Amino acid sequence: MSEAALTLVLDVGKTRTKLLVIDDEGRLLQSWGYDSQSIETTSGYLALDTGSVQTWLSDTLAGVGSLRKSVRRIVPITHGAALAGIGPSGLAVPVADYEFEGFNDRPADWAERVDPFASTLCPILPLGLNAATQLDWMQRHLPGRMSKVSHWMPYAQYWAWWLSGVASSEVSALGCHTLLWKPREGGWSALARREGWDRRFAPMRHAWDTLGFVRPELASSLGLPSGVRILCGAHDSNACLARYLRSWPRMTLVSSGTWVVVMASSASLSALDGKGDFLANVSVRGEAVPTGRFMGGRDIERLCAGADPRLADRHVLRQLIADGVSIERGGQRVRMADGQSISAEGLVDRFDARERATLAAMYAAHETMNCVQALGAVGPLTVDGPLASNEVYLELLAAMQGDVHASNDLVEGTARGGYVLAHWTDARLTPPLVRPVAVPDDAHLLRGRVAPIL
């Protein structure tokens, strides 16, 4: 097993933060995980706990041991809807958590101030899911703190800056439902220009660009070689997409995690009409990608009510169908054969762990297909992340879609995407490892009886 040139992927997710060590042949050597946290700030809003990530990262790297001497690259990948504002002494404002409810406090004319959907291909979303909403809130509530920001940058680039000292911005993160970017034109929105936010963002770089080397004092404290290259990094779902686009430009990706994100790389943008949670993401190559999504990881956890999602079972699926049990649209309730509707919170009293896990898989499959159909997605459907190993979920997709593949990689797509970005110009990169999902013999039964109630 080669340790000659190792890549570290720092994957900062909304729910879980991970550090992975991958060798030059693409093999996973070691990985560590940490529950992502948020904190209340003295400025009156909820923020991502960047300090605890730094402490955890330092402690974890100490556990890498002798492998540290072989590290050559570090790639940061993070969730979206997070911006970092830095000043001369580091963070000028804590990185906001997009789930802060205060972000729903908006000017009465907010809908008129933002660009029309046809320009940004992004709807106005709740909380702080639009990064522009966060900037506007801070501008109104924290003008003094805002004035101390010399550079804004997306969250992945914050970690690249923390490691290298070089500030940058990147298109997949700026194009991730921010209301700051116009995906078709590849430029700043009118809102961003009018408010002057565009002029305060760090320079644009490619996700695969090397920004510089690890800061000398950080290399010393972390025990890393001084020549470790720090890459710009990317938005997590788009990093996952990048690993596939290199080999298969026409495909539809289902990236699963806290969010289930359906990215239809070759679908038409005309399917996007500003309704629902459908929008255009922007790939690391700058292409507009029609996208639909739902908070699948959180929803599955709620429906499972303590059960392991991996307990989902094909035989239980068919028994639930035979008993006339179905999922109501949105996954908030389960409908019984007699018409009784049960809330997600009440499932634990009526269904055992395998049944709850199977109901959660049913829900996830049909919400996924709602996205696929609404986007007019074409090409094979490829599932990555935790749902790639959920056989009930995959079987239902195959019954409804036909051409379905699941990642067969030991490294989840986001982290593998980080590795691919670190080797973007390497002609030796192999295609993604996937396996076909067989269409079940009773596909007609699954299609006809499992669809959510409208």
Automatic annotation (TrEMBL):
<dbReference type="GO" id="GO:0005975">
    <property type="term" value="P:carbohydrate metabolic process"/>
</dbReference>
<dbReference type="InterPro" id="IPR043129">
    <property type="entry name" value="ATPase_NBD"/>
</dbReference>
<protein>
    <submittedName>
        <fullName>Uncharacterized protein</fullName>
    </submittedName>
</protein>
<dbReference type="InterPro" id="IPR049382">
    <property type="entry name" value="FGGY_C_2"/>
</dbReference>
<dbReference type="InterPro" id="IPR050406">
    <property type="entry name" value="FGGY_Carb_Kinase"/>
</dbReference>
<dbReference type="GO" id="GO:0016301">
    <property type="term" value="F:kinase activity"/>
</dbReference>
<keyword id="KW-0418">Kinase</keyword>
<dbReference type="InterPro" id="IPR018484">
    <property type="entry name" value="FGGY_N"/>
</dbReference>
<dbReference type="Pfam" id="PF21546">
    <property type="entry name" value="FGGY_C_2"/>
</dbReference>
<keyword id="KW-0808">Transferase</keyword>
<comment type="similarity">
    <text>Belongs to the FGGY kinase family.</text>
</comment>
<dbReference type="Pfam" id="PF00370">
    <property type="entry name" value="FGGY_N"/>
</dbReference>
